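User: Okay, second chain of the day. Same drill as before: sequence in, structure tokens out.
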Amino acid sequence: MKSSLVFKSLILLAFSLSTSIIVAQEYPVAASSVAVTPSAKPARLTLSGHKAPVRAVAISPNGQSIASGGDDKTVKLWDALTGKLLFDLNGHVQNIKSVAFTPDGTTLVSSDTETIKLWNTKTGQLIKTITAHKNGVFAAILTPDGQTLISTGADNTIKLWNIKTGKLQRSLKAEARVLAVSSDGKTLFSGGENGGKIRIWNLATGKQLRTLTPPRPKDAFSPQQQASGAISLAISPNGQTLISGGYDDSFQSGPLQQTDGKNLKAWNLKTGKLIYNVSIGGAGVDTLAISPDGKVFVAGGLGYEVVLCDIKTSKAIITQKGHAGGIYGLAFSRDGKTLVSGSGDKSVKVWQLVPSLSLVA
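Assistant: Same drill. Structure tokens below.
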């Protein structure tokens, strides 16, 4: 009888573990703990030092360093375990737009509205500066192999650069304010045009493959009204789903609106069809990131919460509170166990992601 009870207990425990979801909290939940409301726990670390809103964050491939950039025109490199500031990377003269580590973690790429800079992460020294676009840089990203830098700017071009030499490899003509690249490095996605169009490119040839166009507003004020342009993009690791974020009706008003009233869209990249068109969080979705396993995505914007959602349904799993300003930068660690957020409150927060164990008494 005693062995039978033990066996039943083990079955219940295994079932509970198999149905767990990811939650954000300060410390891992002990095996004997009851599930904790995620928003009740603070971030594991809060990194303070920026003097203006933080617009971009990144985690190094080995998970040991965090980079952040803000409107104070500085890039900071932090120890991800202790929160200690490792380097202040000074040299930009405009607000920071993006930060990204190369796959080997030895180089950090940062962009402001004028230039793109490459830094040595071990010494904090500037390696090179690229003046990429006339009239301003909007975004800069790296291909997964770290060999190519892709930028877009106010001159309505997307440019591909050899990161070692800093030489221009290819220029594509397109209006774009945000970029994303597939995990296999073969496909580029650009967004930001009026009408909400997202263009899909073959990186090897530079040819445009497809255009995704969201629906126009159902209750348009005028024939000119369109969906708003994307301001954030994220691609699932398997390359099957694209998520785009923008503004909804609460952000713009009047007959000249350019929005369909929704701030988040998901697309099936095999069919080109819209999976869902919804609104989450505040008025706009300024930043997006998809977990390495592709099961969830996280979104942030003018609302003060970090919202973790099921990628298949867009339903919120967790609304994580803690920031006192809008969320403008988000990044997952490569193992999916850590999430970093940058905010208008001038801080960077480090969240630990662990399974929630709801054990049967």
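The first strand starts at residue 22 and ends at 25.

User: Thanks, on to the next one.
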